[in-house]
Amino acid sequence: MSELSKEADRLIALRQSDLLDTAPDPRFDNITALASDIFNVDVALISLVDENRQWFKSNCGLDDVTETSREEAFCAYAIQQTGILVVEDASQDERFATNSLVTGETELRFYAGAPLITKDGHAFGTLCLIDSEPRTFSSKDRQRLASLAEVVNGLIENHILARELVQLKARLKE
Predict the structure, then answer these.
(1) SS3 20
(2) What's the pLDDT tens digit per position in 29-50?
């Protein structure tokens, strides 16, 4: 399957999940608050990446920001791999050194993002950590972030199953 075909399938699955542009959910918000505390970072996000933007299902630390363009999204890189993407100092990373989030007012330096991969293999987005200071990220840190991402994956799968159940009940009534 080509990369374009995989991306098209991923976007269809993301849209069908009915997660984009939904109301805040304390279950997701609790995880980003916990991640921010555990890792002592400025920002923790649950992002969903569509064709044009990354939208934040949950946001701890970015006041009044609900999305950014996909062009500047570190998460767009993270969803293209199966493991955690770690950028210890974005100003020194050729992929991100000229990114407006790095060079601008935000001055993003550290990023760690665990892809949120559904049981069907679609990476909807990430659970990510952002900080204004460069930092290292140990193997134990990676394990902790991966564990939290698994909790988020479970919430996403529960949401998808609940939506499918509602649709099935509606069809049975017809």
Answers:
(1) coil
(2) 999 999 999 999 999 999 999 9
